């Protein structure tokens, strides 16, 4: 799945859990503007993202239990929030501008290699 580099546009979905704390709201807004949010929306993962935000806030507290930190890491992995998990999910961030810039360089390298062979 190709995800837009500029992230998901528009307002985030309504918070689906009980009343959100300030930090949960901040995370919620940030998460729903990531490229991965496009996939989450298609998959209907709204509740999962809310649980992740809630758990992350809990894990950020001093003295958070080690199992909580492990669960946050596992959720990040399952939600495509790490490079390796994006590979496993077969998600790629589509950056056409970056590809266009690199395209010219690739052609230039090919020309140089061809010149060396001749």
- General form: globular
Order the strands across the largest sheet as they lie in space.
Answer: 1-2
| Contiguous helical run count | 6
Taking all Cα atoms into account, the compactness measure Rg is: 19 Å
Rounded to the nearest angstrom, the distance between the terminal CA atoms is: 40 Å
Catalogue the unreliable spans: none
Average pLDDT across residues? 88
Number of domains: 1
Roughly what fraction of the amino acids lie in strands?
A: 5-15%
Order of helices and strands: EHHHHHEH
Largest sheet: 2 strands, parallel
Give the strand tally: 2
Percentage of helical residues? 55-70%
Structural class: mainly alpha
3D architecture notes:
- The protein is mainly alpha-helical and 118 residues long.
- Helices cover 63% and strands 5% of the residues.
- It has 6 helices and 2 strands.
- The protein has a two-stranded parallel sheet.
- The longest helix has 22 residues, at 96-117.
- The relative contact order is 0.15.
- The mean pLDDT is 88.
Quick summary of this structure?
The protein has 118 residues and is mainly α. It has six helices and two strands, in the order E-H-H-H-H-H-E-H.
Core attributes:
118 residues; mainly alpha; two-stranded parallel ribbon; 6 helices; 2 strands; 63% helix; 5% strand
Write the layout of secondary structure elements.
Elements: E1 2-4, H1 22-31, H2 36-43, H3 46-59, H4 66-78, H5 83-89, E2 92-94, H6 96-117
Parallel strand pairs: 1-2
